[in-house]
Amino acid sequence: MRTNPHVLEVSAQRWFKKIQRELGRGITLAEIPESYLFEIKSAGFDALWLMGIWKESLTSRQIARTDGPINNYLKKIVPDYKKEDVFGSPYSICSYDIDARFGTREDLLKFKQKLNENGISLILDFVGNHFSVDHPLTWQEPDLFINSKTEPQDKELFYQNQNGVWLAHGKDPYFAPWTDSAQLNLFNPKTRQILMRYLLEVCPLCDGLRCDMVMLMLNKVHKEIWGNFLNFETPHEEFWPNAIKRVKEIYPSFTFIAEVYWGLEAEIQSLGFDFTYDKILYDRLLFSHSAQIAAHLGAEHLYQKKTIRFIANHDEESPLTAFGSKERSFAAAAVAYTLSGARLFTASQLQGNKHRLPIQYLPEKMPIDKEVCVFYRDFLEVISHPCFHGGQWSLKSAESCDGQDISYQNILTWSWTQNTTCKVVVINYSPNQSKFKIFIDKLPKTENICLKEEISRSSLNISREEITKQGLYLELEPFAFKIFSVDF
Questions:
Q1: Rounded Cα–Cα distance for residues 453 and 140 (Å)
Q2: CATH architecture of 391-487
């Protein structure tokens, strides 16, 4: 993958159903036509995150189809939805075997080979915090899980397995339990051995893993949530450093992506992960002003390079709804995807879906917003330039045009420089019109300079003396942005 790779998250079942519908026949992963893979590569993506490839938990499916919140939400956004289009959660793992809907392990390996031949890496999911409630180990070896020998007080947090043992559901402490999951006891050495075995079985099938809710696996977090039920000493080491080391000894270029929150990103990076979710940036794009966003971008450069930026994923609301308008969502995209680090997009985001669909809901068709499709097609072409991947990123500042107008404070700006090319990004991340000036460090030595504006595909001619001494004066509408390119 390139430096600052573009990653496309696709619901495996939704994508698969779409391809089969267009072909008019059933296929396996190995039989997906090359044209679909070429489409991903030509759009500017380095990696495909195929979410939901593992064998479906039938109990999770039953829970999803009867779950009140899921069904109430679907009734709100898709009043005529069909319950047969609701499946088990991809994160309720009952087996790391390929679901029969997609073929066999051999089909997945052939699919990976075809992706790699097209220059695309394959990312799959790994869930280390919990298994599904119907995983065979939940009744075969209940001590691998958080359990209670007596009837617990919190009946919503526990369930009884088929042998009558009370097992805990997986849980983020800030949300309700995941009732289709069984929480692993990560202080049990045997649990860690089994997770390591699964990890080594999965890695040959892909080029990287997106690891679910990694911060819940930290010793201190696990102890804080489950301390009364652990029955084992705190391990001397975290699970992930040795696990990542063992994998990379076999597959040196393997990529580990961590879903992580709560300000624990730097700590998780220190365990060996290649990229960590940048939820801080996402939240600041939603709730903060330009100054707070710029402050986050002032973090240490290596930390920045190891983040994965996004304005959409399967857990977040659609950008069109979350940001309130197309213009603001496009401005947020301009911020997130012109920074260093990996860049995560979702298929539904690129299509302009107005609502986040539950990961358990797999409709036949998805609505498409042509304006959004065109925006991302053109934008991805712009940010696929080598300068945004091999260049040096530098945070800049806008200045007031006259010393009195403070609307320049709404502006976010930075540059990318590689060899003889400089890209300058300017974004008015505010609901107000803004006037400002910027200075460009790298300029040709010619008397007249041509600045190419990538978004509008226009050009601006200015004298070298003027732009050097006075700066480049600009005026941007609310949530508008420009990307200038200059060769020197």
A1: 63
A2: Sandwich (2.60)
